[in-house]
TrEMBL record:
Domain called GST N-terminal: residue spans: 5-108
Gene Ontology MF annotations: glutathione transferase activity
Name of the protein in question: Glutathione S-transferase
Coiled-coil features, chain-numbered ranges: none
Entry keywords, A to Z: Transferase
Length: 263
């Protein structure tokens, strides 16, 4: 059996930023290897995760295929797509989404839509990053428990000011595209990676801030009553969410700390 053309290199055990990439493959029905998830660390060693660690090692100056070192996961290895027929290794989530959008037919129907999709996916990723900062507002390398007071202030501002700004924006985008997208798509008439990115962030926020999300849902009815459930009901997504390939939320970007949620 031939190996998949695409190899995702990301941390095992969490959806994280790698989930935006997984959702593209799942939506397109394209096989991929999730290197660390498929062969996770155990008592024998890092296994597949060792490959993820190798590409981001502080000692790395690149790989044998001529690719420069990656800064951090996620990264994507595409067999045969590099120079002289070697493997191409790219990293940075939005860069990977942009690369895959065309081949997986998830980047809109023409050149203008390609950039509309990209700008909306970047906006959704901005929201993803701001969510992470609610529980790590001071230092990434410190534990949440070491910055709880600051996290409470950050989360309060995030819930009261940033969430409504993002949600109202995406509501307006859906209204703009309603005649074509029917409230199900941000751009055009078919699924794009912008839809997938936004859906994943909303889903993660429902886990991290369930009270706040229930409170906000009535303010953006097209987003919460139509867009989100319509995509969740797609057969391919239902199948994926019920599979072992979908990693549970835990200690990644989306973490549920009840004290940070709406009281």
């Amino acid at each position: 059996m031939a190996e998949p053309q695409y190899e995702l290199l990301y941390h095992p055990g969490i959806p994280g930023r790698g989930e935006f990439i997984r959702l593209m493959f799942e939506a397109a029905g394209v096989k991929y290897a999730d290197v660390a998830r498929d062969n996770p660390p155990d008592e024998s060693g890092p296994n597949g995760y060792g490959l993820v660690q190798a590409i981001t090692s502080p000692e790395s100056t690149g790989d044998d295929d001529g690719n420069p070192p990656a800064f951090a996961p996620p990264a994507l290895r595409i067999h045969g797509a590099g120079k002289n027929g070697k493997a191409l290794l790219i990293h940075q989530t939005p860069n990977i989404l942009l690369y895959l959008g065309g081949p997986l037919k998830l980047a809109g129907s023409d050149e203008p839509e390609k950039y509309y999709v990209n700008q909306l996916a970047l906006t959704a990723l901005d929201l993803n990053n701001e969510t992470h900062d609610t529980h790590h507002p001071v230092a990434v390398m410190k534990y949440y428990e070491e910055q709880k007071d600051e996290a409470l202030k950050k989360a309060t501002d995030f819930r009261e000011n940033r969430l409504p700004k993002f949600f109202s924006y995406f509501e307006r985008v859906l209204k703009h595209n309603k005649s074509t997208g029917k409230g199900k798509h941000l751009v055009g008439e078919s699924l794009t990676y912008a839809d997938l990115a936004l859906w994943q962030v909303i889903d993660g926020l429902k886990f991290a801030f369930p009270n706040e999300m229930r409170h906000r849902s009535s303010e953006s009815p097209l987003l919460f009553d139509h867009f989100y459930p319509s995509l969740k009901d797609e057969p391919w997504l239902k199948k994926y969410l019920d599979s072992k390939r979908r990693q549970p939320y835990s200690m990644g970007v989306f973490r549920h700390y009840p004290e940070l949620d709406l009281q």
